[in-house]
Model the fold of this input.
Amino acid sequence: MHWQGVFPAITTPFNEDLSIDHKFLAEHIEQMIACGCEGIVPLGSLGEAATLTHEEKRDVIRTCVETSAGRVPIVPGVSALSTTEGVALAKDAEQLGCRGLMVLPPYVYRGDWREISYHFREIIRATGLSCMLYNNPIAYGTDVIPAQMAELCDEPNLHAVKESSTDVRRITGIREVLGDRLTIFVGVDDVIVEGIAAGATGWIAGLVNALPEESVALYEMAMGGSPQTRALYEWFLPLLRLDTVPKFVQLIKLVQQEVGLGSERVRPPRMELVGEEREAALAIIRHQLANRP
Done:
């Protein structure tokens, strides 16, 4: 498992009847790989995993693995209401051919550290797959601080962390406590350049679903210290910020639709944007696309 580069947190495409569009899903993965992405992360928050059944999750993983055909690792998000459910999904992912797991805290219940660490450990220990810890206190109400990450590092197959606290100082804090023990991925689009400057070497990206070439270019320029990084980043920021608001799924899918790389369809309780909210989003999207570098 190679933990570095741009890993799209892919959206889940739906047909008109809201069944999963596996044909487009395969095409989308091909597009991401062709543009230089080094891993694929299905079943994350952006993938609307909470609206998928367990069997649908298995089907998504199967399509991803078969399409990738070993060219890049498939790293599904493991999110569940219960630890038992999370362990079952992790085992399914291993059986289906995934090379890594992105392990989330449990949905809904916000336990204390004794409970949350048990949940993480049970999923990490369920397989021999390389694991990434997903820390997103804003979305999930559970903040895994660097000292707690250090506790979990006695699990030999925990190798990376997706840091989505939005506080770039946390990256410095993780490195201060753990050195290079965990590879750090930025998990919020609009701090990618700052995150790399602080020591992150990977990006679990959202807008990459619509703008893969620009996303990979931005990552590579930031990693290489290119003087052109700032100009590309400043153009990209109004779009990258769409990844940081409650309706980020609807917004990113809308950008995909605007560039011809997807549909804005979402599953309830999400609904497509309408009215002034949609027009305001389209104004931002279309202005930036019209000035695409």
User: Anything to note?
Assistant: The longest strand covers residues 130-135. Strands lie at 5-8, 77-78, 100-103, 130-135, 158-163, 183-186, 202-205.
